[in-house]
Design brief:
By secondary structure, the protein is mostly beta strands. The protein is 2% helix and 20% strand. The chain contains 1 helix and 15 strands, in the order E-E-E-E-E-E-E-E-E-E-E-E-E-E-E-H. A 9-stranded parallel sheet has the order 1-3-5-7-9-10-11-12-14, with no helix packed on it. A two-stranded parallel ribbon has the order 2-4. The two termini are 19 Å apart.
Length: 218
């Protein structure tokens, strides 16, 4: 099926899936595929070599330990939460706006090749550092429950939502932020650079949060 553009095989018990040929599903080669939903399975590996036009990947709730997305330059949305990932190769992905990689075992996360990133959920990993200096479009960040001891957001002046509950963070500088900010942080953290109470700046409406979750819907 060379003209196939979308596959949804979520909520099965697949243990392997090769989308260069998809022999397990007998779908042949799929070079025009744009959307792949294979979440809630038992996948431990995923070969994405022959889907260069992929725009949205839903592979969350599997058993992946490694995910290589280095050649998917059309990719805009990555959903890989609730796996066993120790390695996430993002390569050069200039169009990615949404990255959900929470609840894995990532010790490193290189985001410098994602200049369009708007929404990042990387909570529940083992990150000790998080460099966001090249992600100047970032609006939503949830990095709680990591091993972070500091967080430099001086280049991320567009952020509207920030959750950084991390036991090792004791100080947070928000002098860069001139917008209303929904902030979740441990009360013991010293927050500098803001006159307002950081916990009550404003109430984020559900509709505001939802708008980050509907991109790339088929």
């Amino acid at each position: 099926m060379p003209e196939l553009q979308s596959i949804d095989c979520s909520k099965n018990q697949l243990r392997s899936l090769d989308v260069s040929a998809l022999t397990e599903l007998d779908l042949g080669n799929v070079p025009k595929m744009k959307y792949l939903h294979c979440d809630h399975n038992e996948l431990s590996q995923l070969d994405l070599d022959n889907v260069p036009k992929l725009q949205a990947l839903h592979v969350h709730d599997n058993y992946l330990t490694k995910l290589d997305l280095g050649d998917l330059e059309s990719l805009g949305m990555i959903c890989c939460w609730n796996n066993d990932l120790t390695e996430l190769n993002l390569g050069d992905l200039p169009l990615v706006e949404l990255l959900y990689c929470w609840n894995n075992t990532l010790a490193e996360l290189d985001l410098h090749t994602l200049p369009a990133l708007l929404f990042l959920q990387c909570q529940g990993n083992r990150l000790e550092t998080l460099d966001l200096s090249e992600n100047k479009q970032l609006e939503y960040l949830d990095c709680q429950y990591n091993e972070l001891s500091s967080l430099d957001l001086s280049k991320n002046v567009r952020i509207e939502f920030l959750d950084c509950h991390c036991k090792n963070i004791t100080r947070l500088d928000l002098s860069w932020n001139w917008k209303k900010l929904f902030l979740e942080v441990d009360p013991a953290v010293e927050v500098t650079g803001r006159k307002q109470d950081p916990l009550t700046d404003y109430q984020l409406e559900f509709s505001d949060l939802y708008r980050w979750c509907v991109y790339y819907k088929e």
